[in-house]
Amino acid sequence: MEWTLLAQGGLNGVMLGLNYALIALGLTLIFGIMGIVNFAHGEMYMLGGYVAYYLFGLFGLNFFATLAAAAVIIGALGVLLETFIFRPLTIRPKIELTSLIAAVGLAWVFQMLAVIMFGELDRKVPSAFSGIINMSGVVITVERLAAILIGILMVVILNLFLLRTKTGRAIRAVAQDKEAAALQGVDVSRISALSFGIGCGLAAAAGALVAPIFVINPSLGNEVILKAFLVVILGGMGSVPGAMLGGLVLGFIESFGCLFFTVPTVMVLTFILIIVILIVRPEGLLGHD
Amino acid sequence: MTENRLSSYVPYMVILLLLAAIPLITQEPYVFHILCLIGINIVFACSLNAILNIGELNLAQAAFMGIGAYASTLLVTRLGLNFWLAMPAAALVATVFSLLIGLLTLRFRDAYFLLFTFLFAELVRILLSNFWIGLFGGIPGLTNIPKPRIDLGGSLVVTFDSKIAFYYLILLLTVFTVVVLRRIDGSRIGMIFKAISLSESLAESIGISTMKFKILGCAVGCFFAGVAGSMYAHFVGIITPSDFSIHAVLAPIAYVVVGGMGSVFGPVLGTAFLMVLSHFFLRQFGFYELLIYGIIIVLIIRFMPEGLISVPRVISDWWDSNGWKTGKVKGHESAGS
After folding, report:
1. What are the average pLDDT values for consecutive 10-residue runs of chain B, which has 337 residues?
2. What pLDDT, on the 0 to 100 scale, is given for residue B333?
3. The predicted structure's pLDDT at residue B233
């Protein structure tokens, strides 16, 4: 095996992995705070892709402004969903089950709305960056390199926000213990809505970020939520570092796996790995119980 | 006491007789085709509900139906078993898979069952589409699945070729499913399931082994998913992996939620209501039909979590608290209505 092929696989793995990590981060954040598995999370990613298609592709807005717009618009949608649909469910019994079913319904609604509004066909978003970098045989498009760098930047900003700001501390406090946080004066419902918005915004930004690299279509969310679930089990449910590590692990598995096996075989192997993890280390690679 | 219990069965008997008498009114094959699909979906929705009863959503429920369908088909076509043995055997195959998944994931809280079943649904679809194509038929699936038949010896053979004959078979199996699940629901085990779904910690604190009962509840649900799969395979005659993908579980979730989660008759009502609506009125709406299902799920969960089955009770509660008072004040005015 040539080293260039391995390096190439590694770079693709990092790009895929960062993308998975960004999606799973939002999912795990929402789960950690509210105990809600947001099944509609993949749809937020898909909608982010369409924001990029319209703002960047059709109206020619700056790419970075498009990413911010995707995060803000879909983040606001997340806040609305939390306020009007999920929060009223929390005062009733069986919140995990009812919120999940509501999320399944929402995923379906957004998917069908996207089919009706944008059509079923694949859409291509134009490239934001052109050019190819050739490092002694390892070829990467500037576009993919930019996606890696912006992805890293987004993960760093999120971590700084969670670890260094007052609001970030409040989010972590609510994730640890709702009542204790409320006793310390944290407005739990405001933090819940905010976290839901941040989670959805992250997924949308991730979707917009890679929209020029892949194609977008209304059923994109199905594929994405599957990957996010894999990452979350790999990394541990509710663990932010776990989601980042899990994302990278999955990215590498897919990228290198596809050099040796067919796509279905890679999927089966990933699945076997998940079973092994559930048996040997059920709290995930970095989860804590 | 016994007389009282007998009389409580009368409404069900009347409904059953009416259902059995439908062929007297119409013999249109399309009507019976839809009625058969409704029956299969009722069994499936009940199986989904059986797992919701332990507080879990099985996103692989359609995959278990698929396991039942493929197992039943292969047992009949490859091993030459007859349908009457293949169906329970296929349901047991689905149950064995559910036990494995239950043992693996129901040890944990934190939605691991949900996450894993979603992955399992995708895995089953991939395995059936891409591996052992000689056996599973790949993406086109399996065709020419024989209809059930009863050999009475000699030349006396009853085949279920006509839709009406199949309708009675499905009616019988649907009633069987509902009766069994109703018996479980009313038993001590059913009460334990309810306790677990309301609060797992509380159930554990009074000495219930929640994991054991959750695995049991999951196995019961998947058994009937297997039954539904076997019926589906032999009724439709063609099965493909995409029939049992993750999408196939979305409409049944709507049936259960609309009818009412938790009760046994809720899913029956919801399936019949939505499927009749869908097949006879909403067909021409295309994607809007699916959109409407999604919106209905969200609205019902948000505003009427107990579903349609709770409507009479909600109305009578409202009447007790408001109507009676108004009746007292306004006298004969409200008595008329």
Report:
1. 67 84 82 90 93 88 94 90 89 94 82 87 90 84 81 72 85 92 90 86 85 92 94 91 86 88 88 85 72 87 85 82 57 42
2. 44
3. 93
CB of A275 within 8 Å of a chain B CB? The answer is yes
Sign for the pseudo-dihedral over CA of A31, A35, A36, A39? positive
**Quick one: tokens of A58?**
């059709």
φ, ψ for residue A159, nearest 5 deg: -65, -40
pLDDT, residue B3, reads 55
Q: Which of A104, A272, A280 to mutate to test the interface with B (most CBs of B within 10 A)?
A: A104
C-alpha separations of A89 from A72, A93, B68, B270, B306 in Å: 25, 8, 35, 21, 13
Taking only the tens place, the pLDDT of each residue in A41-73 is 999 999 999 999 999 888 888 889 999 999 999
CA–CA separation, A10 and A14 (whole Å): 6
Judged by CB atoms closer than 8 Å, whether chains meet at A279 and B104 is answered as: yes
**Average pLDDT, integer, range A169-197:** 90
Distance separating alpha carbons of residues B119 and B295, to the nearest angstrom: 25
Query: CA-to-CA distance for A81 and A95, rounded, in angstroms?
Result: 15
* CB of A170 less than 8 A from some CB of B: no
pLDDT given at position B324: 57
pLDDT recorded at residue B330: 45
Work out the end-to-end distance of chain B between its first and last CA atoms, rounded to an integer number of angstroms.
34
Distance separating alpha carbons of residues A214 and A207, to the nearest angstrom = 10
Chain-chain contact of A105 with B254 (C-beta, under 8 angstroms): yes
Give chain A's radius of gyration (CA, Å).
19
Q: How far apart are CA B166 and CA B42, in angstroms?
A: 15
State the pLDDT at residue B334. Answer: 42
Query: What is the least distance, in Å, from the CA of B250 to any CA of chain A?
Result: 8
Write the DSSP assignment of A21-54 as a string of letters. HHHHHHHHHHHHHH----TTHHHHHHHHHHHIII
A278 vs B: CB within 8 A: yes
Phi (first) and psi of residue A138, to 5 degrees: -85, 115
**Domain coordinates in residue numbering, chain B:** 16-253, 311-337
Angle at B46 (CA atoms; ends B190, A92), nearest 5 degrees: 65
* Residues constituting chain B: 337
In the three-class reduction of DSSP (H, G, I as helix; E, B as strand; rest coil), residue B150 is classed as strand
> Has the ipTM of the complex gone over 0.90?
no
In this structure, which amino acid lies at residue B65? Answer: M
Domain ranges (residues) in chain A: 18-219
d(CA A193, CA A191): 5
Query: How far away is chain A from the Cα of B310, in angstroms, using its nearest Cα?
Result: 16
